[in-house]
Amino acid sequence: MVSEIGRFLGRKWKCERCGQEHFVPTKWTNISRNSLSSLPNLVNQDKGGQFAVVVSDEVTWKVAGEKVANSLKGAGWQVNEILLPLPLHATDEAAKKLLNLYPSNVSLAFAVGSGTINDLVKWVATQLKVPYIAIPTAASMNGYTSPISALLIQGFKRTQPCQPPEGVLTEPEIVASAPQEMTAAGYADLMSKTVADVDWQISNLLWGEHYCPLPRKLVAEADDWLQNRLTDLSRNEPEAVSGLLEALLLSGIGMTIAGSSTPSSGAEHLISHWLEMKAISEGKEPALHGLQVGIGTLVALTVYEMLLETEPSDWRPTENELLNPDERKTEFESRYGAIAERVLSEFSAKWLSRERANEARQRLKENWERIREIVTSTWVTPEVHRQRLTTIKAATHPKEIGASVDELYEAILHAREIRRRWTVLDTAYLVGLLPDQVDQILKRCGWA
């Protein structure tokens, strides 16, 4: 075990630094051998009936879904089995179809799968106000215990506030049986929290956004344990993979504490979302989210490295960035088509006039030494990140996630437009690193 995760579950507690009280609604986790056989005892309830829905896809049904359903049936539950066809994407259309498949008398749902299954079940459970249990079949992402569901809504990636699961149950052998690239994706997703946390802290310094150190602290507790098991993770060793899953659950709990995805999603996730949106719009199958995030993290780390090499006296804005968003409608329509208005709305929320940009640069200058300290004490260098990705057998080049270097070029320039959250990509535009230094970023990443 990487930590005592149980001490954070089902209780309210106060952050010593920010002073806020936080409640984690997930009550229990169980990652142990033969745990599925104990499922009825864990979820035995007195809520007026035992009517369950078990949601899986064609693969995860064979891995764990059938066992979950049979275990419940053996304990006297009435079970409705929903098998979703592959390929499956977390879209608003898929979520609504699943909602219509739920029986009216359901009292508890089970999400048997990884990212997509959990996003869909979490959203439906929230709409119906029905509790659910997560049954992870891979240590591939950190959303199991998070308070959000990430859905592609009419081609636009959005996070929806949702209720976390009541519990999380799986077996080491189950998560270790997933394809190794899913384990690699999970570790790459977890690695991104260093840069996401720095983005969050800089947003706090520039804009006064609330910052809590607890989410990063939860994940940091697992770092050393995992660094000593990278080779085991590359081989899908059950102990290491279940430890990675626990670290990912802690990361999701960190999002619950923050009330948003901010501790776990910065520039690297915007790059991933951009690439996913583009792939799906072109009828292509996107790469695993975590593998995209790993590439995005390499970009973010490189931008931070280049940012640290600048001096405040060198900072200059790009004139095009000072144009009012209303003056850029044609540009956004050309780039985003049907979703241009929604993207422009997100971007407009953080657009800076010349006066506000000057004020922001001044705050950045005043806090420059503090920011340098935050970056250097929190991040890992791009070289270390690349080596870890290589060890874990995760993607280190765009072509390994089905993207071209030209697509990464566009993502670096424009991914920040799809969400109002402030990240290092916005800071890079604020000081003038972007858009002029994209070629240099690609070169340092080893792609040009």
Pick out its properties.
448 residues, 20 helices, 10 strands, two-stranded antiparallel sheet, Dehydroquinate synthase-like, alpha domain
Task: Walk me through the structure.
This protein has 448 residues and is of the alpha/beta class. The protein has 2 domains: 5-177, Rossmann fold, CATH 3.40.50.1970; 266-444, Dehydroquinate synthase-like, alpha domain. It has 20 helices and 10 strands. The strands form 3 sheets. A 6-stranded parallel sheet has the order 3-10-7-6-4-5, sandwiched between helices. The longest helix has 21 residues, at 238-258.
CATH fold node name of the largest domain: Dehydroquinate synthase-like, alpha domain
Calculate the mean pLDDT score and round it. 92
Tally of individual helices = 20
Q: What low-confidence regions span 5 or more consecutive residues with pLDDT below 50?
A: none
SSE arrangement:
Layout: E1 12-14, E2 21-23, E3 28-31, H1 39-43, E4 51-57, H2 60-74, E5 78-84, H3 92-101, E6 108-113, H4 115-128, E7 132-136, E8 148-153, E9 156-161, E10 167-170, H5 172-176, H6 180-191, H7 193-207, H8 214-227, H9 230-234, H10 238-258, H11 267-281, H12 289-308, H13 329-336, H14 340-348, H15 354-366, H16 368-378, H17 382-391, H18 405-414, H19 424-431, H20 438-444
Parallel strand pairs: 3-10, 4-5, 4-6, 6-7, 7-10
Antiparallel strand pairs: 1-2, 8-9
Quick overview:
The protein has about 450 residues and is of the alpha/beta class. About 50% of the residues lie in helices and about 10% in strands. The two termini are about 40 Å apart.
